């Protein structure tokens, strides 16, 4: 088993190596779409697991990357929806369940890296929803938050 799990890899946008063999790339979706500027969006994970119910044993990974969908609203055929996904209306329990599942599959003393775009939902609302304080990360942002959590 690979040491790192990315539970919602999307198009692997922030990876320096989009095929890093240490990372198990997962996403619920698999798709290819041409964006409005002609670029191609490719979501091609190794597995299509639901990050709220990962089919792996407890404490399987040294690091988990959690970059869940962060939009409540996007057009059905929009590039935003294709690139980032859309949250369910009841997003708080969904994000909490996903976060808890990421922690379950993380080894004791392992690291969870979470990215959140605060375009439609604030970072403070997300931290309240998951009920856990990060070890370190972005404190204030108008765009994206990066938080690091440790299990144990």
Concise summary:
The chain is α/β, with parallel strands linked by helices.
Explain what this protein looks like in three dimensions.
By secondary structure, the chain is an alpha/beta fold. It has a single domain (4-150), classed as Rossmann fold (3-Layer(aba) Sandwich). 19% of the residues lie in helices and 27% in strands. The chain is built from three helices and eight strands. Strands 2-1-5-6-8-7 form a six-stranded mixed sheet. The chain has a two-stranded antiparallel ribbon with strand order 3-4. The radius of gyration is 15 Å and the shape is globular. 30% of the residues are buried.
Name the descriptors.
globular, alpha/beta, 8 strands, six-stranded mixed beta sheet, Rossmann fold, two-stranded antiparallel sheet, single chain, 152 residues, 3 helices
């Amino acid at each position: 088993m690979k040491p790192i799990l990315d539970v919602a890899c999307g198009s692997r946008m922030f990876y320096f190596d989009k095929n890093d063999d240490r990372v198990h790339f997962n996403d619920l979706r698999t798709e290819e779409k041409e964006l409005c500027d002609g670029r191609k969006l490719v979501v091609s994970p190794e597995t299509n697991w639901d990050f709220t119910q990962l089919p792996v044993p407890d404490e399987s990974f040294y690091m988990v990357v959690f970059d869940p969908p962060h939009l409540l609203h996007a057009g059905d055929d929009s590039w935003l929806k294709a690139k980032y996904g859309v949250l369910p209306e009841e997003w708080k329990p969904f994000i909490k369940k996903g976060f808890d599942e990421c922690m379950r599959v993380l080894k004791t003393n392992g690291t969870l890296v979470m990215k959140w775009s605060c375009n439609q939902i604030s970072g403070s609302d997300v931290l309240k929803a998951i009920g856990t304080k990060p070890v370190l990360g972005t404190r204030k942002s108008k765009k994206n938050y990066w938080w690091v959590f440790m299990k144990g």
